[in-house]
Design a protein that fits this description.
Largest sheet: 2 strands, parallel
Strand content: under 5%
Order of helices and strands: HEHEHHHHHHHHHHHHHHHHHHHH
Shape: extended
GO cellular component, one term: box C/D methylation guide snoRNP complex
Number of helices: 22
Oligomer: single chain
Helix content: over 70%
Structural class: mainly alpha
GO molecular function, one term: snoRNA binding
Biased composition (Acidic residues): 392-405
Radius of gyration: 43 Å
Number of strands: 2
Distance between the termini: 52 Å
Family: Belongs to the NOP5/NOP56 family.
Protein name: Nucleolar protein 56
Length: 472
């Protein structure tokens, strides 16, 4: 509803106050309403205005002098590029794109790691089939396959290494005993090398997946703290991925958020509606909240959960998880109501408490930021003072040798004056001195003039240095 300053200035300069009754043709009705509200000019938006504007765009190069059709097409292309660039920059600053990519990569890694782990089990199972029953975890099994290698070389000395991998002394002893009485086939060293290299690849993929999950958690805590506090980082990231962006998720109504991830089940003809176990997202929500609870609360769980995404909105300057924590408490109270019958708190009361706590958290964060800025300014001030002191020391060290150079020159001048006085004494005593030849007189005069010029140049240099130091 706020007009841009350029548009306001253009309208005020081109249309004086006397012509407020004149009609303006505007393509967008929102802009027309804003002009009417701010400046009082009547605006018309309709089919005729759209046709006129379309004609102006089509014949714009003929209406403007010096503009050709080719230059107009180039200008349109440049405008399109700049608009797309600005849009991409906006999306880059919004880090929910990184969340969408990381959760997609995480799902793909889960599938690939499961497939590769099954391949390692089948491959190494020919040699040591009993290990599959003792160690069912994929990551641990791959580490053991790489560590054991040939089962016949396993001995009491390797028991300590087995305990480090399995984290259980009983399991390590069972693996050692099973290796001695295994029914597996013998295997060649070349096959063992290939199995170990493939196991190391699966291990590195699993470790990378852990790092990626930590990265996803940190991003979710910055972008959508309330959502991650309520339903977890992974489920919240999947919600953002299904919606397309955090903005879209914040704009969705509760009914749309409830069916995200269960689109296939939605169009089935059987049944009277969606169940909570239909769709991956709904299944993860059930695991998050309903483990060990009565099935009675399943029907209304979605309504309680979908209130949080709309609270995220656009990323705030100070992200806080207060709203998510309060909503999680409210969900727990609603689920406990089906078991104990104790009525939960109203949503208005919970939100009031959340607003108070969030304001306190924001104030605390701002206070810490101010302290950090003050410390940073103090450090910068100390650094500048240290640099100034170092510069003064350098200037003093430069000036000292110059003063030392000036002193011997003064001594030379004094000696010359004394010689002149000595030379003039016999004249005063009445003694005549032999006159100097003309050539020698000229040389002495030229030497004196050169010395005077050198002194003047040195004085000018000193003055320039002093001025430069003062300016610095």
């Amino acid at each position: 509803g706020i007009l841009h300053e350029d548009l306001r200035l253009l309208l005020e300069t081109s249309m004086p106050a006397k012509k407020k009754k004149a009609l303006l043709g505007v393509a967008d009705p929102k802009i027309g309403a804003a002009i009417l509200e701010e400046l009082g000019y009547q605006c018309q938006t309709g089919g005729v205005v759209a046709e006129i504007l379309r004609g102006i765009r089509l014949h714009f190069h003929a209406l403007v002098k010096g503009l050709t059709a080719q230059s107009a097409s180039k200008a349109q292309l440049g405008l399109g590029h700049s608009y797309s660039r600005a849009k991409v920059k906006f999306n880059v600053n919004r880090v929910d794109n990184m969340i969408i990519q990381s959760i997609s990569l995480l799902d793909q890694l889960d599938k690939d790691i499961n497939t590769f782990s099954m391949r390692v089990r089948e491959w190494y199972g020919y040699h040591f089939p009993e290990l599959i029953k003792i160690v069912p975890e994929n990551y641990t099994y791959c580490r053991l396959a790489k560590f054991i290698g040939n089962r016949k070389e396993l001995s009491e000395e390797s028991l300590e290494g087995l305990e480090e991998i399995v984290m259980d002394s009983a399991k390590a002893q069972a693996i050692l005993e099973a290796s001695r009485s295994s029914m597996g086939m013998d295997i060649s060293p070349l096959d063992l090398i290939n199995i170990e290299s493939f196991s190391s690849r699966v291990i590195s993929l699993s470790e990378y997946r852990k790092g990626l999950q930590e990265y996803l958690r940190s991003k979710m805590s910055q972008v959508a703290p309330s959502l991650s506090a309520l339903i977890g980082e992974v489920v919240g990231a999947r919600l953002i991925s299904h919606a397309g962006s955090l903005t879209n998720l914040a704009k969705y109504p509760a009914s749309t958020v409830q069916i995200l991830g269960a689109e296939k089940a939605l169009f089935r003809t059987r049944g009277n509606g969606l169940k909570l176990h239909e769709g991956r997202l709904r299944l993860e929500l059930r695991k998050t909240f309903l483990v060990g609870r009565a099935v009675k609360g399943c029907a209304r769980l979605g309504r309680a959960v979908v209130e949080s995404p709309s609270l995220e909105g656009f990323p705030s300057q100070v992200p806080t998880s207060v709203f998510g924590d309060k909503l999680r408490e409210q969900v727990e109270e609603r689920l406990a109501f089906y078991e104990t019958g104790e009525p939960p708190r109203k949503n208005l009361e919970v939100m009031k408490e959340a607003v108070v706590e969030a304001s306190e958290v924001v104030a605390e964060v701002k206070r810490r930021q101010e302290k950090k800025e003050k410390k940073k300014k103090k450090r910068e001030k100390r650094r500048l003072e240290a640099l100034a002191a170092a510069a003064e020391e350098v200037e003093d060290s430069v000036l000292e040798p110059e003063e030392n150079d000036v002193e011997p020159k003064k001594k030379k001048k004094k000696k010359q004056q004394q010689e002149l006085e000595v030379g003039s004494e016999p004249e005063q005593n009445g003694l005549e001195e032999e006159p100097l030849p003309k050539k020698k007189r000229k040389v002495t005069v030229e030497v004196a003039q050169e010395e005077e010029e050198e002194e003047k140049k040195k004085k000018k240099k000193k003055k320039k240095k002093a001025r430069d130091l003062e300016e610095d």
